Amino acid sequence: MKHLIVLSLGLLLLGGCNLAIPNGLFGCGQQSDCPSGYFCWSSDSRCYDAQEPGCEPKTCEQVIAEFASLGIPIECGSLPDGCEGSIECGNCPEGTECGANGQNFLCGCEELTCATAGTGAECGTIQTRCGGASAAIYCGECFGQQVCDNNKCVCPAGVNCNQGCGTCPEGQVCVAGACCAPTFPCSRNECSPPGGLDDGCGGKAQCPPCTDDEQCVLTEDLTFQCLGDCTCEAQGVECGSATICNQPTLCGTCQDNGFQDGFRCSSGNCVCDDVYEYNDTLENIAIVCGGLTCLQPAWGIEVPATLHHKGDIDYYALEVLDADTAIVAEIFEGSGQYTLHLTYICPDGRPGLVDCSESTDDLGGIEFCKSDGGFVALSRYCPASTASANGTVLVGVRSKEFAQDCDAYGLRIFATFGPSQPSEPPF
To answer: What tens digit of pLDDT does each residue of 394-404 get?
Structure first.
């Protein structure tokens, strides 16, 4: 309320002096937050006296440079333009194609196959397009009495190639005068790629096509399957490049996908700088108090930190004087909602948690007090121990609702002057 009064008074004074309000003076989250005649820009959440310019698509050079900064080489193809559209980039040199041989977004020589050579090679050998004059691709032999002529299986003059099988063994078929054991590829493959699958007897089998927007994909076990949700979003990839449904896929930059400045791409996730980024597990906990500050019956520290993505959890450890005073953890700064975990370990390593202000939860086999309200307190007790006079406080912080921004927060941890737990934050 105090800030609102100051803001209103400032506007009255500016209006009374007939002064123009400087652009960008006021922050905003929606249009109603701005003075009359001003507009809330989504790019920086500030008020301006003109409408926000429309999105300006990025150039190929800008997009390629952004992916290069992530270590992703891009030479060609359809790339995201940063305005929910795409832009065609790169002209491959003569004799090369974009995405040749499955190398998406790179120029290369597309190698011939038996199916793509001329009208299709049925037999013999064909010269490679990319392997040099001495390299060749073998396309098999003809069945029965047929002979290979210019990479096609033909029946010689005066020969009846449709006879001569006699009685084929069980499971084999007569093909052009010879017994053949078909492989029936559709019994192992849910679908087939363009051109079909070899049937083992010189022909091609066309398996049923995929439906419901699914794609026919060669899986790790070397069979073709219909797979859906082959998108970055469905696979939980926020940025960079990834192999999705066994296909190289570009998932854009963090800024392209709605994250604010300050986020960077790390292993497919958009993360922001976090001084405690390493402390995501109890095995990699951050020691935030191990000196004289916490070695007295009543003490307190404040920790500025950041949750860098929606799955982040920060763990902290404090070496403290073992006493019967209550311990409190609270979030005193931050724009989101937070879940806090708090527990106490006695000097001899045994649990010292006696009572919690709210519920309990198990993390890594350790009982913690838990709160979704940003404030949690515990009572502690340890039997007399000669091993050490110091116990350990463990604290965990995670975001209850991550708002797609670098979620900076302030954590306050302290011991009270007595054993009783405060019912609400004292600060």
So the answer is: 999 988 876 65
Q: Are 72 and 241 in contact (CB under 8 A)?
A: yes
* Paired tokens of 58: 């990025």
* H or E, element range at 360: strand 359-363
Where do the domains of the chain lie, and which CATH numbers do they carry?
241-272 (no CATH), 282-415 (2.60.120)
CA-atom Rg of the chain in angstroms = 34
User: Rounded to the nearest 5°, which phi and psi values hold at 67?
Assistant: -70, -30
Instruction: Quick: pLDDT tens for 96-128.
Output: 888 876 677 888 888 777 777 788 787 788 887
**How far apart are the C-alpha atoms of 318 and 411, rounded to whole Å?**
13
Global pTM exceeds 0.90:
no
Strand partners, 363: 366
Q: How many residues does the chain have?
A: 427
Give just the sign of the alpha carbon dihedral 149, 152, 157, 158: positive
Give me the phi and psi of 13, to 5 degrees please: -65, -40
